[in-house]
Amino acid sequence: MKIIDKFKQASGKTLFSFEILPPPKGRGFESIQEAIEPLLEFDPAYINVTYHREEYVYKKREKGYLEKVAVRKRPGTVGICAAIKFKYNIDTVPHLICGGFTKEETENALIDLSFLGIDNVLALRGDPVKTETHFVPTEGGHANALSLVHQISNLNKGIYLDEDMKDGDPMDFCIGVAAYPEKHAESPNMALDLQYLKMKIEAGASYAVTQLFFDNTHYFNFVRQCQAMGIEVPLIPGIKPISRRSHLTFMPKFFHCTIPETLALEILRCKTDSEVEQVGTEWAVEQCRELIKAGVPSLHFYTMGRSAQVKEIARRIF
Length: 318
Fold this sequence. Notes:
- Helix content is 40%, strand content 18%.
- By secondary structure, it is α/β, with parallel strands linked by helices.
- The chain has an eight-stranded parallel beta barrel, surrounded by six helices.
- The chain starts with a helix and ends with a helix.
């Protein structure tokens, strides 16, 4: 079922969903089960599976030369989505990214997903390669998420990359996109960031899921700004509980979010990561309760492989 239809059928009830990472290459489906099964009792409406681009490593060759080699450390997004859908009868949302993929490769992935009966995708630009200071489009690929949304929307109309192909069967994807309550790190200002989100919606996106945040004020202000611009699609808050002291610096740097002073001071008083996790859980519980009271369509958790903490939060709010 399409995600947008799930929101409509929920009749105002806040749904539970979460995101998982594909396991590193060499690991089997058991690691996926370990991430999913502790959370099944909360009846997840859908599960997102991230997509990962290539990374580059340098290997020594004869005479001391270094060869730059591309490796994909977390493959399997399409297969994982299909396995979850058919093993657990839960709808899945594969991420599609621009970096590392040509338009043709993206089209082929969408064809595979369509054959598998997966009718939801999350369209993202993706991060730069770790060795690059900014995002560089793949040759023959998309430069941004807006362009990717246009391609998916074209396929929904039966328009394929091959211009000589006539009467292609249309696909039927529900498209989600990313949104940033504290603006995208590369956006010069919030107004332009909101305009870009509106363009993605007009191009065919049906809903947006936000970057993680720790202060609900950012989310509520963001929703009001979207409504003022005529953006009326569901805006799903993304939640990531803090579990380590190192998150105080890692989260703002990697996710470009702010951590409220009250939360930061509580974490600094903790002597162990176990204490930090308890503080992070309590904060997330209160944050989620306020969001549910406000009537958000869904709470979407970034589990990052830590299902136990998300399970404790879900147990207390659902």
